[in-house]
């Protein structure tokens, strides 16, 4: 005997949705749940591809009405100028409201101190959590995906944070069906991840399908870079290169967009969406493995940052 | 970045999405199976494997421990067990997969419920040497209770029983009989060795007596959508879209995700709980105007009459609307650490509607091992499955879970701190089918933990 009580159908019904349609439908449902149940939601918007896709989905979810959320950008002070320019253009184009929480302001005020390694990524947590408290945001959309990192793979779509924005992975609510539980006490908030189930490739395929514009640094271009900890970093006023490091001009592109001090470029000649997608499909490295210095700090670097309130 | 093109371009073509869950006891080889599926579908990338190898070496292990791929939390790695559901993603040229990797440990059965709630398919792993054991029956029962449409019995470690057909056939028959009694609609049994790779991705050369699909082949071809014409169409209203702009002064649309079935322009619908009727004049499918839309599409529906409709209302075809009631009878899985007791005030979240409710009765608690029932247990504790009767403050348009997983399911929530208390499935289930045996009551004050 082989199989039992089993009807094997080779073809899907005409009502099957493509994987991109399924993911889009799910993400839109999540946006609308938040709009229906929360008072003061905000979208974390960095000008990176995941937050760009998030905003695109939010625009579709409420069309023809405007997006009922404001945007929040945590500006490390080491952002790529092309990305800031893109951010401001998109905000103006859609008539959105943008809050900026600035790491530089905190450093200037003496509340945060520059780290010896120069990376400002972990410094984002304090400005982020203070902005959430100050504006009394009760739902904070992030573009995090579970495929990015193994601690993120454990994250719920609705992730309750206490009044200190802390994530406790052992006290997460079970998430059943599509019944998201957003109940929270005053002072607490919920982080919401509508792209939880998307992979890097899904994001790129969706960008292509929807013809979404991206900052130019995602496509191959010549740039002055130098090598540190095995990563190609952009030379600039933020603090690189040091004396022992040499600047070279290389044909590169960015696979993720973050703080200049810890986001590495990849060698690439992919100047079009088709080329980028082909490159990612063939890559043997994950997005974070290829480009993020801060996740290499320890096995639990992301979990530890998330516990403290990082997104 | 590598410039090799070893993955076929076909992977980039439009594919469908299958959500599935794995269940298995601690030593049944679940991590090995998951690891092999990920590895052989080229979903484990070089830096992830390197991290696992590095971590394995620093723990003094000789071979890379693939469980470290999925155990993402500090506490999980420290204890070497999976505590919480992890979601994994992989793809083949034919399909994309979301795998809910659920812990096998008995203490975390609620996490299997979590994983199974959104799964279209469950893989239940059995060790060929041990056959169907208690934990196998629990997993089958949870899959049946959650009404996962497809169940795969993966009889693992066939290499340790000399790949004998008789061993596999006996286990498959026992499991199929048990699961069919519970109402599992489709069962596929596959003999595998996750370690040796038999019948996981590649067909086995060691079991030429087996003529069925490999695990991956089955995952790639199992149908992901059902006959929508047989479903009752349901549309919970999530959000009312009223731009009130110069461009769209009169636009009023009801946004939501179609929970079941299909809706067409021109169709007459009933609004619940008010019972008013009207006609669909337009369906906007995220920017495109369409004549028909179906589950699980997120759409915006426009109606002929300007009637009072808000979040929490349900649209259903005239003549096929569910009855509304304030008395809910259901099977629940208790998922919180604090118990659920008779008389407790709770919130009930059903689709997009949250209402106050009181737990009126807990008629019985189920033992999954032998499906026996304990009458009037007084309370349900973590991981318990039982029957409850709940009275709600407002009428709900609830379907039987057997008819619709989406409109027959609900959460019970603690109004004080927002904790999710229980996962509810309305209507009858096998947990209510059997007569309650009064003999099974005594010696039970500590509650039943599995």
TrEMBL record, chain A:
It is an enzyme of class 2 (transferase). Keywords: ATP-binding, Nucleotide-binding, Nucleotidyltransferase, Transferase. Its EC number is 2.7.7.4. GO terms for molecular function: ATP binding; sulfate adenylyltransferase (ATP) activity. GO terms for biological process: hydrogen sulfide biosynthetic process; sulfate assimilation. Pfam families: PAPS_reduct. Pathway: Sulfur metabolism; hydrogen sulfide biosynthesis; sulfite from sulfate: step 1/3. The keyword ATP-binding applies. Belongs to the PAPS reductase family. CysD subfamily. With CysN forms the ATP sulfurylase (ATPS) that catalyzes the adenylation of sulfate producing adenosine 5'-phosphosulfate (APS) and diphosphate, the first enzymatic step in sulfur assimilation pathway. APS synthesis involves the formation of a high-energy phosphoric-sulfuric acid anhydride bond driven by GTP hydrolysis by CysN coupled to ATP hydrolysis by CysD. Heterodimer composed of CysD, the smaller subunit, and CysN. This is Sulfate adenylyltransferase subunit 2. It comes from Streptomyces showdoensis.
Automatic annotation (TrEMBL), chain B:
Residues 15-229 form the Tr-type G domain. GO terms for biological process: sulfur compound metabolic process. It is an enzyme of class 2 (transferase). GO terms for molecular function: ATP binding; GTP binding; GTPase activity; sulfate adenylyltransferase (ATP) activity. The keyword ATP-binding applies. InterPro entries: CysN_GTP-bd (IPR041757), CysN_II (IPR044138), CysN_NoDQ_III (IPR044139), G_TR_CS (IPR031157), GTP-eEF1A_C (IPR054696), P-loop_NTPase (IPR027417), SO4_adenylTrfase_lsu (IPR011779), T_Tr_GTP-bd_dom (IPR000795). Keywords: ATP-binding, GTP-binding, Nucleotide-binding, Nucleotidyltransferase, Transferase. Gene3D superfamilies: P-loop containing nucleotide triphosphate hydrolases, Translation factors. Its EC number is 2.7.7.4. It comes from the Bacteria. It holds the Pfam family GTP_EFTU. This is sulfate adenylyltransferase. It comes from Streptomyces showdoensis.
């Amino acid at each position: 005997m082989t199989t039992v009580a089993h009807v094997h159908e080779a073809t899907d019904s005409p009502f099957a949705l493509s994987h991109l349609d399924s993911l889009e439908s799910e993400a839109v449902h999540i946006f609308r749940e938040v709009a229906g149940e929360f008072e003061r939601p905000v979208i974390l918007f960095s000008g990176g591809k995941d937050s760009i896709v998030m905003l695109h989905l939010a625009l579709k979810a409420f069309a023809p009405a405007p997006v009922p959320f404001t945007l929040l950008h945590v500006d490390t002070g080491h952002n790529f100028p092309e990305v800031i320019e893109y951010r401001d253009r998109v905000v103006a184009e859609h008539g959105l409201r943008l809050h900026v929480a600035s790491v530089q302001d905190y450093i200037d005020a003496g509340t945060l101190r520059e780290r010896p390694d120069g990376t400002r990524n972990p410094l984002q947590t304090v400005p982020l959590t203070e902005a959430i408290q100050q504006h009394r945001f009760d739902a904070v959309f992030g573009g995090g995906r579970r495929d990015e990192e193994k601690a993120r793979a454990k994250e719920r779509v609705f992730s309750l944070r206490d009044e200190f924005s802390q994530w406790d992975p052992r006290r997460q609510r079970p998430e059943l069906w599509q019944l998201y539980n957003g109940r929270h006490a005053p002072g607490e908030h919920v982080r919401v991840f509508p792209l939880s189930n998307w992979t890097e490739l899904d994001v790129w395929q969706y960008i292509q399908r929807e013809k979404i514009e991206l900052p130019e640094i995602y496509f191959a271009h010549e740039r002055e870079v130098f090598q540190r900890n095995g990563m190609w970093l952009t030379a600039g006023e933020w603090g690189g290169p040091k004396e022992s490091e040499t600047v070279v001009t290389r044909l590169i592109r960015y696979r993720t967009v973050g703080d200049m001090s810890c986001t590495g470029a990849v060698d690439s000649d992919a100047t079009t969406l088709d080329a980028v997608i082909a490159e990612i499909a063939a890559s043997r490295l994950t997005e974070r493995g290829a480009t993020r210095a801060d996740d290499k700090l320890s096995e639990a670097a992301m979990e530890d940052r998330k516990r403290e309130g990082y997104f | 970045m590598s410039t090799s093109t070893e993955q076929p371009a076909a992977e980039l073509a439009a594919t469908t999405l299958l959500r599935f869950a794995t269940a298995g006891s601690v030593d049944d080889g679940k991590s090995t199976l998951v690891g092999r599926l990920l590895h052989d579908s080229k979903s484990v990338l070089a830096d992830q494997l390197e991290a696992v190898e590095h971590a394995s070496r620093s723990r003094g292990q000789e071979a890379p421990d693939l469980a470290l791929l999925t155990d993402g939390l500090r506490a999980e790695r420290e204890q070497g067990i999976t505590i919480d559901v992890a979601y994994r993603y992989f793809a083949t040229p034919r399909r994309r997969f979301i795998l809910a990797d659920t812990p096998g440990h008995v203490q975390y059965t609620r996490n299997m419920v979590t994983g199974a709630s959104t799964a279209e398919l469950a893989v239940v792993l059995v060790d060929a040497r041990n056959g169907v054991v208690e934990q196998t029956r629990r997993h089958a029962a949870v899959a049946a209770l959650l009404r996962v449409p497809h169940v795969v019995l993966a009889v693992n470690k066939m290499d340790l029983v000399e790949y004998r057909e008789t061993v596999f056939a006996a286990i498959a028959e026992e499991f199929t009989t048990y699961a069919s009694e519970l109402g599992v609609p489709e069962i596929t049994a596959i003999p595998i060795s996750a370690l040796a790779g038999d019948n996981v991705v590649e067909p086995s050369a060691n079991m030429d007596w087996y003529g069925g699909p490999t695990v991956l082949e089955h995952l790639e071809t199992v149908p992901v959508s059902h006959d929508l014409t047989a479903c009752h169409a349901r549309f919970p209203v999530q959000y009312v879209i009223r731009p009130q702009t110069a461009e769209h002064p009169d636009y009023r649309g009801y946004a939501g995700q179609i929970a079941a079935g299909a809706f067409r322009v021109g169709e007459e619908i009933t609004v619940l709980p008010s019972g008013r009727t009207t006609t669909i004049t337009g369906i906007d499918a995220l920017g495109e105007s369409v004549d028909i839309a179906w589950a699980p599409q997120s759409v915006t529906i426009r109606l002929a009459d300007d009637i009072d409709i808000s979040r929490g209302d349900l649209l259903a075809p005239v003549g096929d609307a569910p009855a509304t009631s304030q008395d809910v009878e259901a099977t629940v899985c208790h998922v919180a650490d604090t118990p659920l007791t008779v008389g407790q005030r709770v919130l009930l979240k059903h689709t997009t509607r949250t209402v106050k409710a009181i737990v009126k009765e807990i008629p019985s608690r189920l033992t999954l091992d032998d499906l026996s029932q304990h009458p009037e247990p007084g309370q349900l504790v973590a991981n318990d499955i039982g029957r409850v009767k709940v009275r709600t403050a407002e009428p709900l348009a609830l379907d039987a879970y057997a008819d619709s997983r989406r409109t027959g399911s609900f959460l019970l929530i603690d109004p004080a701190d927002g904790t999710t208390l229980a996962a509810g499935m309305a209507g009858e289930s096998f947990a209510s089918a059997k007569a309650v045996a009064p003999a099974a009551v005594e010696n039970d004050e500590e509650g039943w933990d599995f």
